[in-house]
Each structure stands twice: as structure tokens, then as C-alpha cells.
Amino acid sequence: MEAPRRKRSANFAARRIGVSVSGADSNRLYSLIEAKDGSGLYRSDDGGENWTKINDDQRLTQRAWYFTHIFADPKSVDTVYMLNTGMFRSQDAGKTLELLPAPHGDHHGLWIDPINPQRMINGNDGGATITVDAGKTWTSQETPTPVTSPTTVIPCWRRRYTHRRCGRERRSVCCDI
């Protein structure tokens, strides 16, 4: 039996959407949208009543089925971060983008300190990295941090150890336990 199909607007059929509300002004919303026609970064200044496409840089939606992560700065209404294979920041409400020098690639998560937005933790395929200067510099991917990627415990019957614990996607970091 086939599932019923939902009607969609003929003008705009979004495939994936990321949304973030500014901590500095709750009327400012950012949305990263992947759509057949109209992919890009959108902004609302009236709590979502009206939206304007601000930026259509393909780097923001190149792998939208996997990413589409967006984070508004908690203190600056015009600062927003977008994660994809690169980590991007805009400090002019989305008009221009800056590629930050965050280690590794495939950026999946971002924590921004609500008190001091200079401090952030970036979660990526290599683990987690920390900045205390708004993304100018980051800890090494090899620096142990209390925040890590999920780990997997794999039964390992051919070794003298019971299990092998592996983490950090595609980094081959394993230990026998």
C-alpha cells in the first residue's frame, strides 16, 4: 500500500530546512533551505511572518541531505554560523560568508557559549574542537576533549579482549577492552 502524498506549493517545495532564532532578538530568524528551486540562506526580521533570501552560495547546501545546520549567535543579531563540509560565519546578517579554519571536515554540531560567544565547541567527523577566540584558532583534532563523537563497541572474538571500542568517524581510533 502506498502512503498518501501531501500537497505542496507549486512555487516552493523544500526538501530540508534548518532554522535558528537569534538570542539577541527573537524576531530575527535564520533558515537554511534546500529546495528544488530556491536553495539558500533566508532571514526573517518579524518573527517568521516574512522571509527574504539573503544568500544562495552553493557551499551552504551542497550536501543538504546530510547537513543544513544553522546556529544564530546568542549575543549578536547579525552573526550566524552554517555547517557543511566547511564551517561558515556571516557577521552581516547572511550577506557575506567567511570560511572558518575549523579542523577536519563534515561539521555536524556547534555549541556557542551563551555568555561568551567567543567560546565554541565544533562537533565534526573527527571529534570535537574548541575555540576561545570566535573561530580564529581551534584546538587540535588530537587534543583530548570531554566532548567526543559517539563510540561504537564491536564484539571482537578473535582477540584476547572481549570488545573493541572505536570512535571518531573514519579516524581508526580504537582500543581493546
Walkthrough of the structure:
There is one protein chain. With 177 residues, the chain is mostly beta strands. The protein folds into 2 domains: 133 residues, YVTN repeat-like/Quinoprotein amine dehydrogenase (Methylamine Dehydrogenase, Chain H, 7 Propeller); 29 residues, no CATH class. The chain contains no helices and 14 strands. The strands form 4 sheets. Strands 1-2-3-4 form a 4-stranded antiparallel beta sheet, with no helix packed on it. Strands 5-6-7-8 form a 4-stranded antiparallel beta sheet, with no helix packed on it. Strands 9-10-11 form a 3-stranded antiparallel beta sheet, with no helix packed on it. The N and C termini lie far apart (47 Å). The N terminus and C terminus are likely disordered.
Strands, helices and their partners?
Blueprint: E1 14-21, E2 29-35, E3 40-44, E4 52-55, E5 69-72, E6 80-83, E7 87-90, E8 98-100, E9 107-112, E10 120-124, E11 127-131, E12 152-155, E13 163-167, E14 173-176
Antiparallel strand pairs: 1-2, 2-3, 3-4, 5-6, 6-7, 7-8, 9-10, 10-11, 12-13, 13-14
